[in-house]
Amino acid sequence: MRKTSRLEYFSYLFLSLMVICVILPIALLVISSFTEEKALLLNGYTLFPKRLSLEAYRYILQKANTILRCYGNSIFYTFAGTAANLLISSLFAYALCQKNLPGLRFINFFVFFTVIFNGGLVPTYLTWTGVFHVKNSVWGQLLPTLLTNAMSILMMRTFFSTSIPPALFEAAQIDGAGHLKIYRTIILPLGKPILATMGLFGGLAYWNDWTNGLYYVTDTKLYNIQNYLYRLISDTQFLLSNSESSGTAASLLPATGVKMAIACIAFVPIICMFPFVSRYFKQGIMVGAVKG
Predict the structure, then answer these.
(1) Pick from 40, 5, 99, 7: which is nearest to 258 by CA?
(2) Distance CA 157, CA 262 (A)
(3) Residue 122, CA distances (Å) to 115, 143, 144, 177 in order
């Protein structure tokens, strides 16, 4: 039986500490959401609260229908946006793998340039609302900022260039396959690791996004869960800051507990989704990060 070296012991200890550092904040968040408001204000955040309460969740569930609708919107935006993101980014990356593409160097520079510089918020807002007219529409939640990004394109291009042998492309072209068939039969099956990795990043971005709803959406029926929860926090803070004029009921709102409960509601779907793509995550991010 092989003896465990000191380096391995140190590695196990270090990784265990890292796991604890990740789990403790999550546990503290969940427990705080079930802690009575007065206990939070008097004793602060603790893993062993003296008094438990469901008031924060009762406060949120008073508008359960609205929350469910916003959850449905978030699920739709996440899946539709992630699928569109992967399709556009992977097609663009495949095109950049073609050495005989006219203007390849300029296009590569153009993509990389957008990583460093952007037009700023005001020109971006004017473009999306004045030219593309996404204001108060589903497109306002899907298109701006998140539809694709240069880093995804560059990482996919590197993965396709380094992990898929060029001989496969040449053999497919000799057999008469066009670019769409090569993309469908070679790029998509062999590119699953990087597609899953970028899909996870894109899904996280869409699920956690609240800026698109803040800038481009005023119709509450189009809110995602982040927009609604952000508004719920703002309303709670407003009532608390005006508790004297709003009456004694406002001062009894579980404001701190509501924040913790909102955070729990928001991250649960991400935790449920991660195991389905985790097996691709390491391979995709390691190979995709290799410089071509």
Answers:
(1) 40
(2) 38
(3) 18, 16, 13, 45
8 Å CB contact between 146 and 209: yes
Phi, psi of 35 (to 5 degrees): -95, 145
Lowest mean pLDDT among 134-143, 159-168, 237-246: 237-246
pLDDT tens per residue, range 67-87: 889 889 999 999 999 999 999
- Spatial CB neighbours of 32, under 8 Å, sequence gap ≥ 6: 40, 45, 49, 256, 257, 260
Query: 52 is written with which tokens?
Result: 């438990």
Structure confidence by residue, pLDDT tens digits, 89-107: 999 999 998 888 888 889 9
- Residue carrying the six token digits 């508008």: 63
Residues in Cβ contact with 244 at an 8 Å cutoff, skipping those fewer than 6 apart? none
Query: What mean pLDDT comes out for the span 205-226?
Result: 90
pLDDT at 275 over 50: yes
Structure tokens given for 9:
């012991």
